[in-house]
Amino acid sequence: xxxxxxxxxxxxxxxxxxxxxxxDPLPSWNCTGHKPQLIRFVQDAVNLNSEHYLPVSxxxxxxxxxxxxxxxxxxxxxLVFAMDELRRLAPEHPEWKDNRLIQLALNSELxxxxxxLGPVLLELLNTTHTGITVEEFSLRVxxxxxxxxxxxxERPYKELAYQPMLxxxxxxxxxxFKTYLVASGGADFSRIWAxxxxxxxxxxxxxxxxxxxxxxxxxxxxxxxxxxxxxxxxYAGKPVAIHRRTGQKxxxxxxxxxxxxxxxxxxxxxxxxxxxxxxxxTDELREYDYDADPKHAAPLKTSLxxxxxxxxxxxxxxxxxxxIFADRPKLTP
Amino acid sequence: xxxxxxxxxxxxxxxxxxxxxxxDPLPSWNCTGHKPQLIRFVQDAVNLNSEHYLPVSxxxxxxxxxxxxxxxxxxxxxLVFAMDELRRLAPEHPEWKDNRLIQLALNSELxxxxxxLGPVLLELLNTTHTGITVEEFSLRVxxxxxxxxxxxxERPYKELAYQPMLxxxxxxxxxxFKTYLVASGGADFSRIWAxxxxxxxxxxxxxxxxxxxxxxxxxxxxxxxxxxxxxxxxYAGKPVAIHRRTGQKxxxxxxxxxxxxxxxxxxxxxxxxxxxxxxxxTDELREYDYDADPKHAAPLKTSLxxxxxxxxxxxxxxxxxxxIFADRPKLTP
Lengths: 333, 333
Known about the structure:
7-stranded mixed beta sheet
């Protein structure tokens, strides 16, 4: 009898996707949470004998960016870039002295600007994201990424992707899933940022877009970034953008705020098999602890309620993620 | 001396990409035209020792649709679909009797409607392409494709892709090129049409887009096709759409009208290696003969002039294409 119990436990351990083996695809995820369900979904998707098998053409996974793949506190990373660009360019623009909104942006912390936040952000974008070609913009983002550091974590922004999410992306890609970033931030920014930080190829980046103008300048064709927003990739815009890009419904959707609720609904409601995941920021010590804080630009409120109704997996960052950021390689002196 | 000449000719034949071998990747292209140059471009692109080698990530080829991959005469295929839909739906819409534009569309040949063409087309789109979900629209396109026939060629529209272009698409795909359709027609229509007819996967279809609205209807999420144009994928819009979709510059661009000029410029000017191709409709007997005809909605005029300046390959359909359409399989009685 004892031996039988031992055998059963041994078998369960062998069969459990959560055994801490060298081949564990998600080593930074604790076994106490949703990890076994994520692994089961992928194992079924690639198993021809499973009723939840998915042909490769249907293995589409969409990920929000800010707060889902990397921190969005104290302000989203693209905003840090825009502020740094504003400071870098200010000496060349003495005329900015008379621009109240730019002066507000230059002299205040963004989280103090409740009343003027909208107009300040628009001015910031128009000042730092337009009037240049898409190539010049890419160069500026690349240059900024080389040196920009997160003050609290004291490491380059580009080393701030969540390690558990890097493992999930890698696990999905190795199992034939096509992974798309569906960012509320700008597509041109995200393309540089997220391809380096999370390995997205350029054609799998979806994001908000500004106006663009094609012209020939001195016999060289250019695409100029112009003022004005062409498409806002947030809330109900996300399923629209996913349809326009992929022409298909994803089977996995990962987000962290109410801005991701529509794409979670589009992915999972009346659609099986499918997997909805919400990252819940509950770790003040290692990252941040917030959800429905009204000061927070991307609240997590209604989708937490919907998550329960629709069986979305709410990942408790504090208890489910063993590691948040990858260890930095130690420099030899 | 004779033997040496013979050897040289033999060698030239062996090395020439235009030898009529069983392995000829473009059998429907005659050797007298640009075929050897197309093959040389691809051979160089995959040859690590060539100075024109291209890593797989850069092997991006963009193709216009109407008139480039299939006929656009006497009217573009999406317009035939819209007219057929209008006739199919008319009995359910007695109120259309009082709609002058719909009556014009129902009772006239489209090429007679010079004065009212714009408003008639818009009414046609709003009547047949909106007020339904994207799934319902796909079903309608699929159903139409099952039976719709081209009057002159007496064969289903879906068997009207140009055989030389199918061979070129296949040749490029087999050599690691990612091929995109960049249609001036609607993306939702093209996605159904061009994936069946030319093997484009859904995420490689770029086209004009209408407004879309996400909503939950009876607990089921839907994307509704709404009136109004969101983006017109033609002329200067084409490079904009290519950038937004791929984030990269193509190395091959194939078109047939002035609406493709901007994407040909974006692909080839100040960008090497690159290949620009224009299909010239010169074959009245087997297809159509037209270019700058002012009655034609998509004229080929300025880009013929630019082609000479920039070394784009102008394909003379009559002399360069041995076959236009694939032979239809004979039905056994």
